[in-house]
Specification:
It is a single chain. By secondary structure, this protein is mostly beta strands. The chain is built from two helices and 23 strands. The N terminus and C terminus are likely disordered. The two termini are about 25 Å apart. The strands form six sheets. Strands 10, 11, 12, 13 and 14 form a five-stranded antiparallel β-sheet that branches. Strands 2-3-4-5 form a four-stranded antiparallel β-sheet, with no helix packed on it. A four-stranded antiparallel β-sheet has the order 6-7-8-9, with no helix packed on it. About 5% of the residues lie in helices and about 40% in strands. It has one domain: Glycosyl hydrolase domain, family 43 (Tachylectin-2, Chain A). It binds 2-acetamido-2-deoxy-beta-D-glucopyranose (NAG) (4 copies).
Length: about 375
């Protein structure tokens, strides 16, 4: 696959030749994955003619912007937040997301003090000198209504009852705003990592108390465990990276989350659907227990695909998934790169994700060709 991808990149560099070979087609231009050569936990939103991307740098909050969803080689970069040392949020800044709520932008992210100290116990069999115990959720607020020119300041820690919390996201519903994040049962129980929901009164304030917090999903299925179907050491079973997805035709509300474990090939996407009226009622959610809805494609060396976010093509007509994956399933977290693919919808309104791969794929509909030699 490496050879193939390299060859395609080379052809793209030649640009003109690739474009000329398909001049009869109206959407002949193609791109290949990855769209960013290194990175994890990508999050993308489209606003005012630009795509804004956040991802895990671990040391700060950096925002990229590009007019092109699948070409970030000329993206601009903005350092939104560089945490001071010695705080509970100084290290391991993970999975930032940039949300536009009530004319301000909120960056919701995970962080911890002192680099996940104590160091990881062997195979994370921790009872209890456990890494990750101090991970918490934090929120930055923009100074104005523009995500790029704004400055960002730390607004608040999100209340997770002084318990493990990672990968938090906002869930918007007619009944209000919610925080959905990866949680443990208790402060010192460690894995499995579940999905929890709490109600918010504003983007930086959790209103629910611990009794009201609800667990929406527990990684009980074989495909949610690592290795697949593992019956012992459930500490390596994870539900994380939750992300709201709305079917624009039917209005169906989903939470697409990542399952299994992010450092290996089994990482994949699972699906919850809100089938009732109240996100705080766990009986109002339906879990797709049958298997991952987006998962490794060994035939194309696309492994560990997960931690997705969703956006649309420049003209708004297509749905796109932006996710990370690895070509080498043995190198762990460092092998992750950022990818994007178009997806559709099944007859029952659920998302219909493609098989993960490297392309070449047609560029997103409405991609601006001007100023890009290879996309005439
Ligand atoms: C830092 O985190 C610890 C453990 O959760 C907590 O006890 C302490 O109050 C926090 N410090 C601040 C300044 O919030
Ligand atoms: C949580 O909030 C509910 C509703 O306000 C209240 O009835 C309950 O006593 C609270 N629980 C705790 C532990 O504070
Ligand atoms: C297309 O790209 C050109 C050159 O970067 C830019 O001037 C123009 O505003 C863009 N048009 C749209 C619709 O994004
Ligand atoms: C370079 C390129 O995109 N070539 C494509 C042109 O269109 C034909 C037919 O659809 C494809 O097979 C090529 O891959």
């Amino acid at each position: 696959m490496a050879l193939h991808a390299a060859l395609i990149s080379f052809i793209s560099l030649l640009g003109v030749a690739a474009a000329q070979s398909n001049t009869s087609s109206s959407n002949a231009a193609t791109y290949t994955n990855p769209i960013v050569p290194s990175g994890a936990d990508p999050w993308v939103t489209r606003y005012g003619g630009y795509y804004y991307m956040t991802y895990t740098t671990a040391t700060d909050i950096t925002i990229l912007r590009s007019q092109d969803l699948v070409d970030w080689s000329n993206a601009e970069s903005k350092l939104a937040f560089d945490p001071p040392a010695g705080q509970n949020y100084s290290t391991d800044l993970w999975a930032p997301e940039l949300h536009n709520i009530a004319d301000r932008w909120y960056v919701i992210f995970t962080a911890d003090p002192n680099n996940d100290s104590p160091p990881p116990s062997k195979d994370m069999l921790c009872t209890f000198s456990c890494p990750a115990v101090n991970h918490r959720m934090y929120v930055l607020e923009s100074s104005g209504s523009d995500p790029w020119t704004s400055s960002y300041t730390l607004k608040s820690q999100l209340d997770t009852y002084d318990q493990f919390a990672i990968d938090g996201t906002y869930f918007r519903h007619t009944t209000g705003l919610y925080h959905i994040y990866s949680c443990w049962y208790t402060a010192y129980e460690s894995w499995p990592a579940n999905l929890c929901i709490t109600k918010m009164s504003d983007p930086w304030t959790v209103q629910s108390n611990l009794t009201e917090r609800q667990i929406l999903s527990v990684p009980t299925n074989p495909w949610e465990k690592t290795p697949y179907g593992r019956t012992e050491n459930i500490r390596l079973s994870s539900n994380e990276g939750p992300q709201q997805l709305t079917n624009p035709q039917t209005g169906q509300q989903f939470v697409i989350y990542s399952a299994a474990r992010s450092d290996n090939r089994n990482y994949c996407l699972g699906q919850l659907e809100l089938i009732g009226d109240d996100p705080m009622n766990n009986q109002d959610w339906k879990k797709h227990n049958e298997g991952c809805i987006f998962y490794q494609n060994a035939l194309e060396s696309a492994y560990g695909v997960g931690h997705a976010s969703f956006t649309t093509s420049p003209d708004g007509t297509e749905n796109w998934i932006v996710y990370h994956g690895m070509e080498n399933p043995y190198s762990g977290w460092s092998a992750r790169t950022i990818r994007a693919q178009k997806f559709g919808w099944n007859a029952d309104g659920t998302p219909d994700f493609p098989r993960p791969g490297y392309g070449p794929y047609a560029v997103p509909s409405g991609t601006n060709a001007t100023g890009k030699g290879m996309r005439v």
